[in-house]
Each structure stands twice: as C-alpha cells, then as structure tokens.
Predict the structure of ATPase.
Amino acid sequence: MTSPLFLGIDGGGTRCRARLADAGGRTLGEGVGGAANIRLGLDVAWNAIMEAVDAALAQAGLGREVLSTTYIGLGLAGITNEADQKRVAGSAPVTFAGILSDTDAYTACLGAHAGADGGILISGTGSAAQIIVNGVGRGIGGWGFEVSDLGSGASMGRDAVRAALLGHDGMGPHTDLTRAVMAALGGDPPSVVAWVGPARPGDYGTLAPLVLDHARKGDVLAERLVREQADHLVMHIRRLLELGAPAICLMGGLGPVLLDWMPPWVRGVLTAPKGDAMAGGVLLAMRAGGA
C-alpha cells in the first residue's frame, strides 16, 4: 500500500503557498500560486491552490496521480464558519484522500506553536489574530477588508488613498506622501476613483511600502498613518493576553516592521514561531488522515 502524503496550504489574499510532506513530516516540495481568499470565488481560490500544489508536486518529482492518497489541510483567507469549510471541500477540482479546512489564521497558529496552545497576530495584506487554548481555536478580527483587517497593509493603503484625496481637496495635510500616492494612482481624483473601482485588498497593500518609506523620512502624515496601524496591532495583542494566550507570535510581512512603532512592552510578550502557516496546514492534513 502506498504511504499517504500530506499537503499543507496557506492561502492568503495575495498568494497561496503549498508544502508537500511525507508521513514523517519531511518536506518533499513547495510551491506558490495566486490569491486564494475564498471571497474572490471558490474557483479562483482552487485555481490558486492547485497552481501551488502542482508546483510542490513538480519539485518533489511527482504528478497529480498521487493526490488520491494525499490528505490536504487548507488554511484559507475568507473562511468564517463551518458552512464555508464544507463549500471548500465540496468544490475541490480533484479527489484527495481527505480534506480539512479552516482559516489561514488557525493553521498559522497551529504551525507557530507546533500544535500547542498559543496565540498569533498576522499582519500582511490583511490582518487577523488567533488563539488556541485547550485545543480550541478562536479568531479575532480578520472579518474582511471592508469592515476589519485593522493593522494591515491593505488598511494602511486605504488610509493613504483617503488622506491623498483629503489633501487634494484642502481638507487635510497635503504632504510628500499624499502627492506621491496621488501620482501613483494617476495624478488626479478621477484617476483615483477609476483605480479604486476594481481594486482588491492586495492592490491597496502595494501602497504600504510608500507610506512606510515616507514615515521613515519624517513625513508627519505618514508617521501618523503608520502609528495608527501599529496601535491596531497592539489592541489585538492586548486582547490575546486577556484571553489567556500563553505565548504570542507576530507573523506576516508587515507585523515585524510595525514593531518599531509599538510600545517597548510588546517585545517582551512575543515569541518566535516554531513553524509557519504551511506547517500548520500539514498538521491539519495529518488530522484529516487520522493523526
């Protein structure tokens, strides 16, 4: 009988990553695909997942024929409840040996603490906090770009666009940052409105480096916008502590950058993650396989 394999998926709003592992947890291959937030559509999410899966299989020298004996653990942005989990499993374009799915925050927390209790705060394109206590997970924030995702690159970019328009209209500071944002989006309000129409969270997130760069140069408005996002992350950390997180990991591309804008005590409550979100996906896949 062929030994089962395990796929761990970290599907975020910007990209999807896949890790293929054997029964001993040894990595056989990894791959990257496009955005896998299920709010973009299950077909879009699965296309990104399979793009990453195919790349991981290729790196391992394998083809899709092994997927029927492969368990997959999906950590996907946009999942909010059990109904979402069932829809994801039911829309799989290929047959896997078994499927378990949860939020990308949950699998990231599993990976960060190697399956033990703990909390995480993810800050990248979006943001979300997660805590696992006594084996039970609970999400905090991460309810979507429109109403949540505070302390994220997308949130920072959105605030920068709003500030640029206010500055242009003479109702807010007009600084090097607002002029740079306006120029990046076409130079005038009609161009900004045209850009906003089809813009996704990842598009707003591309403006975050511009804000950070101007903050480092001393632009007062940029400093304020960065500090506001850092304060949002501190709010999440306080809540994780209130809920009894024995350890907290700060994850994502933006979180560590914003540490410099947080109060000193924050560094004292953070620990380094033991694994990444793909590792958490592999653990979830192993659960699907009965481990």
User: Anything to note?
Assistant: The chain has a mean pLDDT of 95. The two ends are 18 Å apart (CA to CA). The chain has twelve helices and nine strands.
